[in-house]
Amino acid sequence: MRRTRGATLVGFVAATAMLLAGCSSAASTPNSTSASSKPVAGGDLVVARPFDAISMNKTLVNDSPSLWITEQIMEPLFTSTDDGKSVKPLLASSYKVSADKLTYTINLRKGVKFSDGTPMTAKDVKFSIDEDTKTATTGWGYINAAIDQVAVVDDSTVQIKLKYAWAPILADLALFSNAIIPDNYQGKTAADFYAAPVGTGPFKWDTWQKGQYLKLAKNANYWQAGKPYLNSVTWTVVPDANTRKLQLQGGQIDIDQQPDWSSFASLKSTPGLKTYAFPSTQMDYMEFNQKIKPLDDVHVRRAISYAIDRPALVKAVLFGNGSPANSSLAPGVPFYDKTVAGYTFDLKKAKAELAKSSVPNGFTTTLLIKSGDANQGAVSQIVQSELAAIGITLTIRQLDPTSNKKARIASNFDMASATWTMDIPDPDEWMSYALNPGNSGSLASAMGYNNPAIAALNKQAQGEVDPAKRAADYSKIQTMQNNDAPILTLYYSPYAYASTDKVQAFAVTPLGNSNFLDVYKTK
Predict the structure, then answer these.
(1) Are residues 233 and 331 in the same domain?
(2) 394 and 439 belong to one structural domain
(3) What pTM was computed for the model?
(4) Do 304 and 316 have their domain in common?
(5) What integer pLDDT is reported at residue 294 of this predicted model?
(6) What is the dihedral angle through the alpha carbons of 471, 474, 476, 479, rounded to the nearest 10 degrees?
(7) What is the DSSP-derived secondary structure letter of residue 508?
(8) Are 79 and 181 contacting, i.e. CB atoms less than 8 angstroms apart?
(9) End-to-end alpha-carbon separation of the chain, Å?
């Protein structure tokens, strides 16, 4: 890729790449290798997954089932590299940075059209980023906190002026919420536009039968000639893991998203199928709703954290496909610190922390999980037993995946099982989204966690372009977070997928997104 930038930023990106730790599990080798030497055009791909999307509004949506679809329709100026370690231009062709690191001049890729055939211009770019910025307290706009102004230079050039130096700016511009859409929503309201969104991506809007399936069709106006190969991609909603497995084996679907680990080995040995364990930035954890008692008590949260045997969870639930979590950052995320001391199983310490709490004799609470999710089901039963050993009675509450997500966003839970995957190759997204106060569209607000010292240190890290100093800041943050125990970190794991051997070139980046641009099907 072509780019022009200052020497300091070159060093930052290079150092960031060096700081990245290896992921918890390498991708497994598919058990079938029938890939054609030449991609085949045509075909309709069906992906079964346990959850439906909630919304296509890229600036407000905060669930992966939705955003992974928006990324097929709408593209940002920059995108993650395949290894998830850096960013590269996408709708941008090149850029340069001013000496004071406050102005980014970005040249747009020529010949890009929206799926309706309308050319993309700098006015569309300005509108798209500005609209995202407006959602600072309701959605993802906080990611643009450093942006002072987006200016149109000419049809093919924009300038982004910053309020202050901002290390993650290019990564932030690669976030789905900054994807480019037509100026002024094509004269529609935002609600009407996102009911059938238009973008520059490889696929365009087709049909959404909520709770059943969502279908995208090939974008004939896509700027990469000859792509995508597929005629369409359809995501069906199948909450039960065993049903998805049977559908895959019966040829009713092409890809099973999120097969449970208990059936992974049998899928791998099934003729005509492939299995994948893609390296990830995924962390499984439990949220504490700190707006309610007694979970607002740090001693209660620490007691629960000490009561959990994480290596046993990895063995029993992931069948060894993962590693215990020591931090709220995953090993594939820049500035993850493997030396940070996480919580380890210690029943004596768990009881001691509970004795210091507002409920020394124990209490009753609930854990919200997704129905049909074998992993969460297994984890919940193990945790239920472990907490009973320190006098905590845990009731398991199940909701279908879509209702589950809505309940969590509304803070309608005591404890809740959750999974986080990074969307950009920078810790800023997670730190600002989940563990900083004041973002009403984020999980931090839904959990009620508020530590001003962490918020201040996080802001300092955002403006620090020296990677060594940034690493030191994030190391302190990870230690401080562990002390507060705002979430119950469990384990890191790869992304599990399975497909028929007719599916070729399917891949998932460590950031969790599947790019169906290069996928094709053989007969």
Answers:
(1) no
(2) yes
(3) 0.81
(4) yes
(5) 98
(6) -120
(7) B
(8) no
(9) 35
Q: What is the pLDDT of residues 3-30, one digit of tens each?
A: 232 333 333 333 333 333 333 333 444 4
Report if residue 363 sits inside a domain: yes
CB atoms within 10 A of CB 514: 20
Distance CA 266, CA 191 (A): 44
Q: Which of 464, 486, 513 is nearest to 335 (CA)?
A: 464
Q: Which domain holds residue 411?
A: 282-492
Q: Dump pLDDT digits (tens) for 394-440.
A: 999 999 877 888 898 889 999 999 988 898 999 988 888 777 655 44
Residue of 12, 37, 14, 45 lying closest to 521 (CA atoms): 45
pLDDT greater than 50 at residue 518: yes
Residue 65 inside a domain? The answer is no
What is the distance between the alpha carbons of residues 354 and 303, in angstroms, rounded to a whole number? 5
* Angstrom distances, CA of residue 2 to CA of 6, 98, 244, 280, 316: 14, 17, 43, 27, 47
Distance CA 340, CA 327 (A): 7
Q: How confident is the model at residue 32 (pLDDT cuts 50, 70, 90)?
A: very low
The predicted structure's pLDDT at residue 228? 98
Shared domain for 302 and 410, answered yes or no, is yes
Residues 481 and 334 in one domain: yes
**pLDDT, position 277:** 95
Instruction: Give the tens place of pLDDT for each residue, 279-326.
Output: 999 999 999 999 999 999 999 999 999 999 999 999 999 999 999 999
- Within its chain, how far is the Cα of 242 from the centroid? 25
pLDDT in tens, 90-106: 999 999 999 999 999 99
* pLDDT reported for residue 446: 79
Q: How does DSSP assign 110-162, residue by residue? A: TT-B-TTSPBP-HHHHHHHHHHHHTTTTTSSGGGGTTEEEEEEEETTEEEEEE
Same-domain pairing of 356 and 421: yes
Q: How many CB atoms lie within 10 A of CB 300?
A: 25
Average pLDDT, the chain: 89
Give CA separation, 309 vs 107, 384, 390, 448, 495, in Å.
52, 12, 13, 26, 22
Residue 206 backbone phi and psi in degrees, to 5: -130, -80
Total domains, the chain:
2
Q: Tell me the percentage of the chain whose pLDDT exceeds 70.
A: 91
Pairing of strands 103-108, 255-257: unpaired
Q: Is residue 2 part of a domain?
A: no
Four-point Cα dihedral 348, 352, 353, 356, nearest 10: 170
In a domain, 407, yes or no: yes
Indicate if 357 and 374 belong to the same structural domain. yes
Beta pairing, strands 363-370 & 392-399: parallel
**Residue in 428, 435, 423 with CA at minimum distance from that of residue 482:** 435
Residues 459 and 377 reside in one and the same domain:
yes
Q: What is the CATH number for 43? A: 3.40.190.10
Predicted pLDDT of residue 513: 86
For the domain that residue 350 is a member of, what is the CATH number?
3.10.105.10
Per-residue pLDDT at 459 exceeds 90: no
